[in-house]
Amino acid sequence: MTRLQGNNQNRTVLVIGTLIAALLIALAVYAVRGNAGGGASGDTVDFDLEGQPVLGQADAPVTVVVFEDFKCPNCKRFEEEFLPEIRSQNLDTGKAKLVSMNFPFLAESARLPEDDSKYAAQAVECAFVQGGSEAYENLKQIIFRAQGPESALWATKSRLKELAQNVEGLDQARFATCLDNDETAAAVEADEAQARRANASGTPAVYVNGKAVESYDAETVGRAIDAATAN
């Protein structure tokens, strides 16, 4: 009996070890590729893209929609590691255009004293009001480069005004008034509502022609764009 119990214990240890190894492999794959926060991949979502910032040619046949939170480390990774390749292979070639939208939720989830996820989103929308997609994109990249911890309050309105001074051609007084008065709060809330209707479970949430993409790495997004082009 004792020996049989020992064998059962050995089997249990083996099973647990196998499960742990499988989990570690899965985590490694996740870290390398990154999972997107989109909804069910089989669903097709109709987005209202009127008046949204666009990278690429407006008449490109494929539309990539990306929801981001400026406090999201994976969004920073997408912007700095994967977007340059997506841009060179798909946006600059006219195959696709990329529409940026806001899904600010991390500050609220972290129960911070101020919702700096929304402040950052409002800031880029204020830049968009003045300078269109180019100003939006410029300030977006600047904010991501200055990104602080998810759990810390760092995207304050005063800090965002400092960062906006690096955007060429932006009327700083007008920008400050826009941000201080929450003039773009409605635009941010509209983006957030679209993200929730699309069942976005996190950020970055990537959709190609309305279909959620399982990962935000350049290879996976590129394959989704190719598939949409073929269809």
Task: Describe the structure using short key phrases.
231 residues; alpha+beta; Glutaredoxin; 2 domains; five-stranded mixed β-sheet; 5 strands; 55% helix; disordered N terminus
Write structural notes for this entry:
The chain is of the alpha+beta class and 231 residues long. The chain has two domains: 1-33; 54-230, Glutaredoxin. 55% of the residues lie in helices and 10% in strands. It has helices at residues 2-33, 73-91, 106-109, 116-145, 157-164, 172-180, 185-197, 218-230, and strands at 54-55, 62-68, 96-102, 205-208, 211-212. It has a five-stranded mixed sheet. Strand 2 (62-68), helix 2 and strand 3 (96-102) form a beta-alpha-beta unit. The longest helix has 32 residues, at 2-33. The chain is globular, with a radius of gyration of 21 Å.
User: Which fold name corresponds to the CATH topology of the largest domain?
Assistant: Glutaredoxin
Globally, the shape reads globular
CATH superfamily of the largest domain: Glutaredoxin
Strand order of the largest sheet: 1-3-2-4-5
Q: Report the end-to-end length measured between terminal Cα atoms.
A: 64 Å
CATH class identity of the largest domain = Alpha Beta
How many distinct folded domains? 2
Beta-strand residue fraction = 5-15%
The CATH architecture name of the largest domain reads 3-Layer(aba) Sandwich
What's the SSE pattern?
HEEHEHHHHHEEH
How would you classify the helix and strand content by structural class? Answer: alpha+beta
* Overall pLDDT level: 88
> Could you give a short account of the major beta sheet?
5 strands, mixed
The percentage helix is 55-70%
Rg to the nearest angstrom? Answer: 21 Å
Poorly predicted runs of 5 or more residues: 1-33
Annotation field: number of helices? 8
